[in-house]
Amino acid sequence: MAETTRAGGDASQVQSVDRALMVLDLLARRGELGVTELATELAVHKSTAFRLVTALERRDLVQQVGDRGKYRLGLGVLRLAAATTGRLEVSREGREVCERLAHELGETVNIAIMDDDSAVNVLQEYGNASVMTRNWIGRRTPLHATSSGKVLLAFADGSVRKHFLSMPLEPLTENTLSDPDELLTELVEVTGRGWASTYEELEIGLTAVAAPVRDGSGQVIAAVSASGPSFRLTRDRFEPVAARLVDGAAEISSRLGYFGA
């Protein structure tokens, strides 16, 4: 009986979410609608339609139009759209900067975004000293073993970090930080200095440095990194390389509408 009740409750919640999304879709297509009109379109009771728009209004996803009893899309939708747009624009706005960084540093430069529990590279430029021509675009890499992943994780929402650190961290090499407490300590350092690094943590012979890219709201939505063989991109190069990446990331961020606090 308990399982049946739970299943019924889950189905009801899914139906409510689906109806709420239908409300947003209707308002996007029709502009303004009243509760009665929404109820008719959704084939539900007027009270159900009212509960849906009330819940969406609390999240600023819809708003009332004066005192006419009509509703339209709210500013919360713009925030959601801006987050998606920023991720799509970062490749376009970052290409010129990454080309220049790759030329100046002589290493492979990537831009990566977070996708669930991984970092995904969306842009790649090769430096003139690059000896590795592997294509990283579209490849999912673990957050805890890459410089871009550490940046994305360090600047992510606290609940995202907590969830990630609660999972087993696979040791990919003997240098991988697989202890959650040690990783958390390093993430705090990353937020403090503004960049992250890895030394043969994803693969033996591969090192990397990364810096955060922000959208117009100041949220970190991507990381720009330089990677190369450990015999060339040595630890003593991390700071000067990081300085160039931080400047480059700031330029990309400004192109996305962020001009600092």
Automatic annotation (TrEMBL):
InterPro entries, per the entry: GAF-like_dom_sf, HTH_MetabolicPath_Reg, Tscrpt_reg_IclR_C, Tscrpt_reg_IclR_N, WH-like_DNA-bd_sf, WH_DNA-bd_sf
Keywords: DNA-binding, Transcription, Transcription regulation
Record's keyword annotation contains Transcription: yes
UniProt GO MF annotations: DNA binding
Domain of life: Bacteria
One matching Pfam family: IclR_C
Name of this chain's protein: DNA-binding IclR family transcriptional regulator
Species name: Kineosporia succinea
